[in-house]
Amino acid sequence: MGILDIFQRRRPKSPEEIAQTPVSEIMRRELVKVAPQDTIEDCIGVMKREGVNFLLVAEGDELRGVLTDGDILEAIYHNKIDPRVTSAEVVMQSDVTFINPATTLEKALEAITSQKVRRLPVVDESKLVGLVSLTDIEEFSGYSLTFTIS
Questions:
Q1: Helices 40-50 and 69-77, packing angle to 10 deg
Q2: Which of 5, 30, 74, 88 is the most exposed place for a label (fewest CB within 10 A)?
Q3: Domain-embedded: residue 120
Q4: pTM
Q5: Can you give the CATH number for the domain in which 83 is found?
Q6: Number of separate domains in the chain
Q7: Contacts of 87 (CB under 8 A, 6+ apart)
Q8: Within a domain: residue 3?
Q9: Is the residue at 7 inside a domain?
Q10: Residue 40 lies in a domain
Q11: Residue 136's CB: how many other CB atoms inside 10 A?
């Protein structure tokens, strides 16, 4: 590899090139997952240990849902569930929008904004393979994409 190759790889991408980049280039492959039968108490422990506020609920590599700290708080304080005995599958969001590895960042952003989410699981042929977030896209693109998701 010559010096020109190094400069070519490091040159900033245009907004058009960024938009057409597949999520497979930036998605996280190390995933924080829990099983559907794990208790909410266990899920809270995983969140604390891993320093996250979002969990993928999966059986092996099959995505079953997602669970956020907000979902847990609502279940405990508003629905009065017992976190010691209630499983993740009772509290998780099971209607999850996901994308595939070939999805462009432009399409991923469209899904993020239309679904009002911050993260999208990446599924390839029914197998959970990654996760992409608004922050991942911002860091890759170098653009601030701040908007309100509620």
A1: 140
A2: 30
A3: yes
A4: 0.85
A5: 3.10.580.10
A6: 1
A7: 36, 37, 38, 39, 40
A8: no
A9: no
A10: yes
A11: 19
Give the dihedral sign, CA 138/69/30/45. positive
β-pairing, 62-68 vs 33-34, is: unpaired
Taking only the tens place, the pLDDT of each residue in 42-61 is: 999 999 999 999 999 999 99
pLDDT tens for each residue of 100-142: 999 999 999 999 999 999 999 999 999 999 999 999 999 998 8
Alpha carbon distance 97, 105 (integer Å):
15
> Three-state SS across the chain?
CCHHHHHHHHCCCCHHHHHCCEHHHCCECCCCEECCCCEHHHHHHHHHHHCCCEEEEEECCEEEEEEEHHHHHHHHHCCCCCCCCCEHHHHCECCCCCECCCCEHHHHHHHHHHHCCCEEEEEECCEEEEEEEHHHHHHHHCCCCCCCCC
CA dist 121 → 37, 83, 85, 95, 109 (Å): 20, 25, 27, 12, 13
Which residue do the tokens 């058009």 mark? 16
